[in-house]
Amino acid sequence: xxxNVCIAKLHRATVTDASLDYVGSITIDxxxxxxxxxxPGQMVQxxxxxxxxxxxxxxxxGEKGKGEVILNGPPARLFQKGDKVVVLGEAWVxxxxxxxxxxxxxxTDDDNRITxxxxxxxxx
Length: 124
What we know:
Shape: globular
CATH class: Mainly Beta
Strand content: over 45%
Strand order of the largest sheet: 2-6-3-5-4-7-1-8-9
CATH architecture: Beta Barrel
Structural class: mainly beta
């Protein structure tokens, strides 16, 4: 049996744009993807801390070092520039793998620069 788990989290990233006239997805700076271990095309859940909206979509790789976190397509109606979000990276793993895992958490400042990375982070 496979279960869906969170493998990584971008904590309190700032939305830099919202583009309604786009096919869909979330564009994320390549530096953030690398730090979190997330991949283009991977499914993520995005929670808007301003309004509690939860959206699920796939990742597009943004320009490295630009700090982009852009909601494309329909979520552009629910996520606005400046909103703080939590991005949760998903993966399907076996129960045995899941028991050994804990997510990588990437903390960012208001410009989406990485302030800290905690691998194998678990709440205290």
